[in-house]
Design a protein that fits this description.
Elements lengths: L3 H17 L4 H36 L9 H26 L1
Amino acid sequence: MRGPKARKSRQCTRHERADHGWISRSASWSRGLECTEDLCHEYEELKRKVDALQRSRRHVMGENLDTLILTDLQQLQLQLETALKHIRQDLGHIVS
């Protein structure tokens, strides 16, 4: 990194190192807990997204369709028809 952001980053790092000597262990511990809580929250959010994507993938592959209501099935059908249309267009361009 170059420029003001890089300088600021280096300054922050220098200050953090300088501050480390006088920061109490409890403050340091508190920062660690905040970081851990943030990571736990991020993990839970990412896990929810992965689960939703896996569920969506299974539906596209024709699995677990009995869990969908009629409007979800219709939306899935439209999504698959649109994808098939694009595939056929791409195939037409490749063949011609």
